[in-house]
Amino acid sequence: MDMRRNAFLGYLIAEVIVILAVMALFRGIPDRQIAATLAGVLFVALPVIMMVLEYRRAELSQFVWFVVVMQFWTLFALPILGIRLMNWGVPFEQLSFIGIPGPVLHQWSSKSYMLMMAATVWSWWKVNREKA
User: Fold this and answer.
1) SS3 for 96?
2) Which of residues 37 and 131 earns the better pLDDT score?
3) CA distance to 7, 30, 44, 60, 71, per residue, from 53 (Å)
4) In percent, how much of the chain has pLDDT > 70?
5) Which residues, other chains included, contact 50 with Cβ-Cβ below 8 Å and sequence gap of 6+?
6) pLDDT at 4
């Protein structure tokens, strides 16, 4: 079994790297609003890149994975970055999206990101099993 051919391992590594990069941004950039905006850009860009690569590679063969990635992107990454950019200078704690306070949205986004990572692990395992 050649694990290099399983794209989901690459996606999982990218997901972990984004977490590490976000931690580095908050440690290295004193302005939390700038750090959070750059982190938001990473969280918006990563799912798009993964979905485009996966669609080009195998179309919708891992449909559940696409749905899970899409839910993170549409329900959390885009709204959080959007409310930050549209309310520049306003503390995140004071922001909300469709009535959901920013901090609550952020808590749920973390759970959603973990779900996305779990779906990536599951797809990685599933593809490896199908190849065996």
Assistant:
1) strand
2) 37
3) 9, 34, 15, 11, 17
4) 97
5) 11, 14, 69
6) 52
- Sign, Cα dihedral of 41, 44, 50, 51: negative
Q: Fill in the DSSP letter of residue 113.
A: H
3-state class (DSSP) for residue 100? strand
- Return all residues near 91 (Cβ < 8 A) that are at least 6 apart: none
State percent of the chain over pLDDT 90. 94
**CA nearest to 42, candidates 64, 16, 62, 63:** 16
**What does pTM read for this prediction?**
0.92
Q: Strand, helix or coil at 1?
A: coil
